[in-house]
Input
Amino acid sequence: MHRVYCMVWVVAMAAGMLSSVAQAVQEAGDPRPGNAAAFDPHDFSGHWHRETPLVTFGVVPTVANTTIAEAPFTAEGKARFDSNKPGYGPRRKLERNDPLGRCEPMGLVRNLVAEITEPHPTWQIVQTADRIIQFFEYRHDWREIWMDGRSLPTADEVYPKWNGYSVGRFEGETLVVESIGLDERSWIDKFGYPQSEQMHVEERYRRVDINTLELRMTITDPLIYAGPWESDIKVFSLDREKASRWDEQIYCVPAEEFSYQELIESGNVVPR
Amino acid sequence: MTISMNRFVVCIAAVGVLLLAGLNAATFAHHGGFVNWQQESLIGPVTFVATSFAFRFPHPQISGEIRDETGQVRPWVIALRQTPTGLRAQGWNRTSIKSGDTLDLTYSPHVSAENVGIARRVVVNGEFLPIEPGDEECRTTTTPYRRCGDVQ
Output
């Protein structure tokens, strides 16, 4: 019994110390307004930096040795998943076919996941009266969310695009965005989870406080997934300092990208 | 140092997740995967004479020569993890390294190509050039090289 109390005490002390240190660091040097500061919950403007450590759509495949449910694949979905050869995660293969490695656009969901490591896991939101524009730093991509009350087109009315077609609305303080018409060549994350042209994506954004944004996505894609599949909650923090810097304009330039890949994979230097 | 409570706690969680997952190559994670650096291995400092410096995306590269243990001069290529923009924030520019410059270089080697590596600590003609935010600690050799030139 004493051992249990001791463990609880140690954990509590550790948590307390962690909290104190973090608080001290924040008070000492953080010029940002405190989280309790007033804010407009309908204003999502700004550069948002991914804080969520997971760089995949959801908590699959397994992280470490935890037991987590597999994605709800259909037979077709499983077949496509098996044919995707990622360069990351438990299924990583030497012979890979990640579209990102071919300089193809990342696609909507992968853009939103913001998988790239520091200093690039950010996107920016610009809001106007009738539209929200989202800029994705890595690969210098963007998408538009129409807020003018228009309806989402049907799949028959549009042809697939890398970032699809999106409309948004507010449900209370939650921004709900729905998208269709997405190009099935994209993966939804770097672990090779597929998508089809039947995919419908719902994004739910909520500004938790002045510095923090939460995003949860739900994918409905009857060709690939037997039921709706929810992401984990992605947490982003407002990066005010980013606005003072020049846009890095990171494009995927084939001549540069393939030369670099050749160097890092084989050690060969490709003349350019 | 500016860090929020949220970012601090999430950083701790991220470290835990990465350690548990054994994703030791995650710090160089993009380009579709398989970045083949032996990140835990550090070689150097070695004397590296630059022949060219490509300060370009996605990652700058330094070409040069290293004299091996037999006295033979061999061509070498060293990549940098940061983009040009990231290096600019650390004080670099396109002329930070010029042909003929002498570098004291510590690097992590490529898994298979022995004449390719990723820079971890760079001193150009006696001047230390930080690669990553936080690398100032690596100015002196008393700092463990392990943290140098890597995501802090």
